[in-house]
Amino acid sequence: MPRAVCPRCERPACTCLCTTLPPPVAVSTRLLILQHPVEAGHAKNTTAFLTLGLSPAAQLLRGEVFDAALASPGTALLYPGEGAPLAPTDVDRLILLDGNWRQSRRLLAANPWLAALPRLALPVQPGRYAIRRAHRPGQLSTLEAGLHALALLEGQPERFDPLWAAFDEFVRTGMTNRGKTGLA
User: Fold this and answer.
1) Cβ-based neighbours of 147, under 8 Å, separated by 6 or more
2) 152 with 123: CB under 8 angstroms?
3) CA angle, 43 as apex, 170 and 143 as ends, to 5°?
């Protein structure tokens, strides 16, 4: 018998995020999250925080190949690598790739139009997501990358504090459920 899943956050009912999420934060930069299908069922996935915490400015699409028409003017890709410096006024929509690093590279390869987009790369910073192991410094969860990028593009990072608090609680709960305590 399959376990019960919350229809809103798509998480197992026992780990539903809906009661811990604050009201959505208003942003002017729209986020488009392209999620690898394998990532969709992972209990540690942070995409629900962005889609629900920034609704209606965040949209999620699942798949491996996406329509190049998604690359409208003012769209940039949030992904490590070389790119021309972007001014915040140049970006009105940011695409994030959601999956592990291998899956994100596959999404990039399967959608060559993504590589042609202006690219926003975040400065290397420590992650807060102690549930998943980063293989290199600066590897962040989708939520962390999205919130840091929005703070960089729009300023006023303190307005994301309620989302960070909900995320930190999610991490604490996850660590407790794994028999650990506190954030690493």
Assistant:
1) 50, 157, 160, 163, 164
2) no
3) 55
- Per-residue confidence in pLDDT tens, the chain, 184 aa: 677 888 888 877 877 888 888 999 999 999 999 999 998 877 778 888 899 999 999 999 999 999 999 999 999 999 987 665 566 678 999 999 999 889 999 999 999 999 999 988 888 776 766 566 655 656 788 999 999 999 999 999 999 999 999 988 888 877 676 665 444 4
| C-alpha triplet 45, 46, 51: angle, nearest 5° | 125
Q: Classify residue 140 by burial, with Cβ atoms within 10 Å: 0-12, 13-18, 19+.
A: buried
Could you give the residue ranges of the DSSP H alpha helices within the chain?
A: 47-53, 101-110, 112-115, 142-154, 161-177
Rounded Cα distance between 90 and 74, Å, is 6
- Sorted by where each begins, the domain ranges of the chain are 25-80+88-177
How far, in Å, CA of 62 to CA of 18, rounded? 21
